[in-house]
Amino acid sequence: MTLLGRTQVVPEQRVPAAAGQVFLVLRVGFTVLPIVFGLDKFANVLTDWSKYLAPQIDSIVPGTAHQAMLAVGVVEIVAGLIVAVLPRFGGPLVAVWLAGIIVDLLLLGGHGDVALRDFGLLLAALALSRLAWAFHPARATGADVRATA
Questions:
Q1: What is the rounded CA–CA span in Å between residue 73 and residue 89?
Q2: Does residue 25 form part of some domain?
Q3: What is the pLDDT of residues 55-95, one digit of tens each?
Q4: How far is CA 136 from the centre of its chain?
Q5: What is the pLDDT of residue 146?
């Protein structure tokens, strides 16, 4: 239905349309941003990332803080790629990763504001996963089909 050349969305379609838009925004965001942050662990353009590694964690991981951050960068790049390909699983992966970052920041101290922001991102990653399951449900197996018959 159009009005003055604009397509109108009927009320029953507004929520699914909005959910689809939110899913797209979250998927793109949680694909691009971890990849950018991951790549920056190698370049240190945004900041010196090694200063964000809590001493308690630095003492248990092998190598230097810089080497640990390079490994973190690889994990972040992989997480972003998984969100791009399999958002149902990438969302929880990013949420767990953010939980680890929150623990690190709280151990480090003085970064409670960033930890709280990352908690908001963790919730958004879980929302991405939930929307991904709604838009791309798991394929039914023979057992699933028999169980519902």
A1: 19
A2: yes
A3: 999 999 999 999 999 999 999 999 999 999 999 999 999 99
A4: 17
A5: 46
The CA distances from residue 131 to 35, 67, 142, in Å, are: 21, 35, 25
Structure tokens at 65: 């803080």
Q: Is 140 within the bounds of a domain?
A: no
3 sits in which H/E element: strand 2-3
**Greater confidence, 146 or 12?**
12
Closest CA to 101 of 81, 127, 79, 133: 79
Residues 6+ apart with CB under 8 A from 131: 19, 22, 23, 26, 87
Residue range of the domain that includes 82: 15-134
- The residue assigned the tokens 């972003």 is 80
